[in-house]
Design a protein that fits this description.
GO terms for molecular function: rRNA binding. The chain has 431 residues and is α+β, with helices and mostly antiparallel strands. It has helices at residues 15-18, 33-45, 62-68, 110-116, 148-157, 204-210, 228-232, 248-251, 323-393, 406-419, and strands at 23-27, 76-82, 87-93, 99-108, 132-136, 175-182, 187-199, 262-264, 279-286, 290-299, 309-312.
């Protein structure tokens, strides 16, 4: 009989996977159904490196997620809330910051984008790998570039795993997240696409024949056609072959439209007949969600432990400070942080002192109980000796004669009263 092999339950942790950024996307406060659905859609975009099934409760606070996030190796926290003016989004880098605050100017959900598109359909297998990040329209670093834009670009870049072209598998590139900066409006546009690979150099009808079995409606319906040529070569809008056929040159139109979108596959890709070396047209189908974000401010630290304000969009209300005032503000923040640290250390010392005092009290109680038991044992021994003595006094001698008469009885009673021992009263000490 073959020996049963034990299944390995302890898998070694991948060192590369530990460097992958992980995120938690939450909503806090009273938000509507649309914002809650936007949170779920954004979790789907950030898969698989996010908590897609996280359920918030009403009693959960933002501080709870800030505390437990670093313990779970979470690198980013995205928090949505609803204000009186518009929804807002805070992008928090755990656990030291910075914190970027955005106002959500406009947004569209996944279901809205899919309902308006005729072609964009998601199979579901695309979300097993992280998306590729594309940063567009950001100005290059230069002395004239606003200092907050490079930090904004790096903040979005740190949300997604770094791209390694040498080790990247072509089949894992299934989605694209586009972050584009609109300089005219001063906003950031968020888009989400799925990569589609189609045959290149064939007409739409030929492509439908090649991919007909993979579509949801199954095989093509050619019941009304006399010949396959009626379907492949007939001009658009013509009822039958009497109107003539299209030429090969006019029918060979690309899916994408021009040769710039055609690529030669370096590896085998997902889909039918997408083999290495085949020429294919690449297309991006948007699946949502969409967001238009306006950066409000950037602060050091995390909520509850904010530092200095690094950037604020309301420059017309912001008070310009001198170097001396900035240094004084930094000194005040450092003093507050030092005071908070000292209070925390003092609280920890008080807790340790109380625990030590409670341990001493518990150690004394069994010692006192053992001393009480010893005293009780000594008293019991004394009473046993007294009882033995009483028994010796109460015994009669066989040679002793019993006298008769009243005088003898009175004298005997007197002698017995004198000889009767006194009983001792026992006192027990109170513990």
């Amino acid at each position: 009989m073959a020996r049963k092999r034990k299944t390995r339950t302890h898998v070694k942790e991948d060192t590369k996977a530990s460097n992958v950024p992980k995120s938690i996307i939450i909503k806090h406060g009273q938000v509507g159904h649309s914002i809650a659905q936007l949170v779920r859609d954004l979790r789907k975009v950030m898969e698989p490196n996010t908590a897609s099934r996280l359920k918030e409760r009403n009693r959960n606070k933002l501080k709870d997620f800030l505390t437990i996030g670093p313990a779970l190796q979470v690198s980013h926290l995205l928090a949505f809330t609803l204000t009186a003016r518009a929804p807002s989004l805070r992008l928090i880098k755990l656990s030291d910051g910075p914190t970027l605050s955005f106002r959500v100017e406009r947004y569209s959900l996944m279901k809205d984008v899919l309902n308006t598109s005729r072609r964009a359909r998601s199979v579901g297998m695309e979300y097993l790998t992280p998306p590729l990040l594309v940063l567009a329209s950001f100005p290059p670093p230069s002395p004239t570039t606003p200092p907050h834009l490079p930090l904004l670009m790096k903040s979005f870049q740190s949300l997604f795993p770094p791209l390694a072209p040498n080790s990247l598998s072509l089949s894992s590139a299934r989605r694209v997240v586009l972050i584009s900066y609109n300089a005219e409006r001063g906003t950031v546009d968020f888009r989400h696409y799925i990569i589609k690979v189609k045959p290149y150099g064939v007409s739409k009808r030929v492509r439908r024949v090649l991919e007909g079995a993979t579509q949801s409606h199954g095989l093509l319906d050619l019941g009304n056609e006399k010949d396959i040529a009626d379907f492949l070569l007939r001009k658009r809008g013509e009822p039958g072959p009497e109107g003539g056929y299209e030429s090969a040159a006019s029918s060979a139109e690309s899916v994408a439209g021009d040769d710039a979108d055609a690529v030669d596959l370096a590896e085998d890709y997902v889909g039918r007949n997408n083999k290495k070396g085949q020429r294919r047209a690449v297309r991006l189908d948007e699946v949502g969600p969409r967001m238009e974000l306006r950066l409000i401010k950037i602060t050091e630290g995390v909520p509850g432990k904010e530092g200095a304000v690094m950037y604020h969009s309301f420059d017309f209300i912001t008070v310009k400070k001198s170097k001396k005032e900035v240094a004084l503000q930094k000194a005040e923040h450092a003093a507050k942080a030092q005071l908070k640290k000292e209070r925390r250390e003092e609280q920890e010392r008080n807790v340790q002192r109380k625990k030590a005092a409670a341990g001493k009290v518990e150690s004394k109680e069994p010692h006192e109980a053992s001393s009480d038991e010893e005293q009780d044992g000594d008293e019991d021994e004394e009473t046993d000796g007294e009882e033995e003595h009483d028994n010796d006094i109460g015994e009669w001698d066989e040679d002793e004669n019993i006298s008769e008469g009243e005088d003898d009885e009175e004298s005997e009673n007197e002698s017995s009263e004198d000889e009767q021992p006194r009983k001792k009263v026992k006192f027990r000490k109170k513990s």
